[in-house]
Specification:
The chain has about 270 residues and is an alpha/beta fold. The chain has eleven helices and eight strands.
Length: about 270
């Protein structure tokens, strides 16, 4: 049996995936294949590098580290100045790259004990792209280049934006690669009701959510009967996560990890 972990995108909400991973590893569910998009690429790289319970403390520390928060935010005056000067993004990608290099160094996909792939959106080809070789940091940077927040990432002359644009929860990819048992680690957005946007900045968020959920629902419906799929429950989200500056809020990281761990632990216990 081939077991796959599919880790979806979701910015700071990705802390929930740490709790899910803890529940899985505590019950001796270990992946043969890991697929990650956006923040799921970061979490996925860590578990693919160290597919044991010992990785959870390291992941928790990374998520609670102030330097991690700085990697996707900046001081307000710098943000405004950068937005005006570039016209395309609010934050520099330098902090994120530094944080990832500190974590992974020059590690490549080939160095990992578990097969790992990362999704990004190619600008030039207007297509879904899967990184499965080469440096890990380049792939994660490409997958997590959130439009408007970070600049496109360049890899080998091609430019990439956040993989969530094309495949936020890559369930179908896991099926295509031969997984027989799939655990979907998602951040909770697919469970919450959508409402019509009330403010200009909500239009893009709601539009993206429709696209994200539509593809996942379609792929879930198309999973062959031979494949066992488990969508793990995320907890700790609220309407506050829909606010304009929610991506900067790391204050509830621990609460998200713990709540999703408890919910996923209970879910997995019900399978036995």
């Amino acid at each position: 049996m081939t077991t796959a972990f599919v880790l979806g995108g979701g910015g700071v909400l990705g802390a929930a995936e740490v709790g899910m991973l803890r529940a899985l590893l505590e019950t001796d569910v270990v992946p043969d294949l890991v697929l990650g998009t956006s923040v799921g690429a970061l979490n996925g790289a860590m578990v693919a590098r160290e597919p044991s319970l010992s990785v959870i403390d390291r992941m928790t520390a990374l998520w609670q580290d102030a330097s991690t928060a700085r990697a996707i935010s900046d001081r307000p005056f710098r943000t405004v100045r950068r937005a005006v000067s570039t016209g395309t993004h609010l934050y520099s990608s330098a902090y994120m790259q530094q944080r990832l290099v500190a974590e992974f160094g020059d590690a490549t996909f080939a160095d990992l004990p578990v097969r790992f792939q990362v999704c990004a959106a190619s600008i030039e080809r207007a297509a879904e792209h899967w990184f499965s070789s080469g440096p890990l940091v380049e792939a994660i940077m490409a997958s997590a280049a959130v439009p408007g927040l970070l600049p496109p990432a360049e890899v080998d002359g091609e430019h990439y934006l956040d993989g969530g644009i094309v495949n936020s929860i890559p369930l179908g990819r896991a099926v295509a690669l031969g997984a027989d048992r799939i655990f979907v680690l998602q951040v909770g957005r697919i469970d919450r009701p959508l409402r019509p946007p009330q403010r200009p900045w909500e239009v893009a968020r709601v539009s993206f959510e429709i696209a994200r959920r539509h593809r996942f629902a379609r792929e879930l419906a198309e999973v062959p009967d031979r494949v066992e799929v488990h969508v793990l429950p995320a907890r700790g989200t609220s309407v506050r996560d829909d606010s304009l500056l929610a991506h900067r809020d790391f204050s509830r990281v621990r609460a998200r990890i713990d709540a999703s761990y408890e919910a996923s632990r209970d879910y997995l216990a019900g399978l036995s």
